[in-house]
Amino acid sequence: MCHVIVTCRSMLWTLLSIVVAFAELIAFMSADWLIGKAKPSSSEEMDNRTGGPQEPYRPTLGIYGRCTRISHMQFSRRDTLCGPYAENFNEIASGFWQATAIFLAMGIMILCTVAFVSVFTMCVQSIMKKSIFNVCGLLQGIAGLFLILGLILYPAGWGCQKAISYCGPYASAYKLGDCSLGWAFYTAIGGTVLTFICAVFSAQAEIATSSDKVQEEIEEGKNLICLL
Fold first, then answer.
1. Which of 30, 36, 162, 203 pairs with 117 at a CA distance of 20 to 30 A?
2. What transmembrane ranges does the database entry give (predicted)?
């Protein structure tokens, strides 16, 4: 018989697992890993909101995508265009970024799998006599290691020609040059930290769902058990 067991700790772990998976996925897909050096707008380019000249803009560069402005000569204005600069894996700008993409993708795949499974932990608490929380916590720890490897390798690719075109000639491995780090990089770091927090917290979720109070309510014949 399936017993639906909901506790504060198990629900918090489930929500954190889902948030972490989405945060890492959004960061990976974003082009805002590097913010390039400011490029001045021409005096003919006008801001539609203020009526004055447009402010200098800063293009952004991701692991496989970028955002920049394209000119419309007939309208004397520019529009921001975002999309992948690499049509396939081999066209990613740096070998280090290719490795980063592999490690991040592996970590994200594991996190998304755990996030999906975590939704069903209210009904299923064990698989083959092993706690599903402990198994998921172990997988989150492994995913965190993949994410760390990807984030360590990413700055090593700042010396590639693509990064230099955005960050200036002084950019090199682990040196930003004229660039700054975008929100996607910080989101990936924050998601990695939360991944390890989730891995540790999974043990608390397992303890909460197998406590004496839960066992007492199961013995009383309750199918829906909600505990603080």
1. 30
2. 12-35, 96-120, 132-154, 183-203
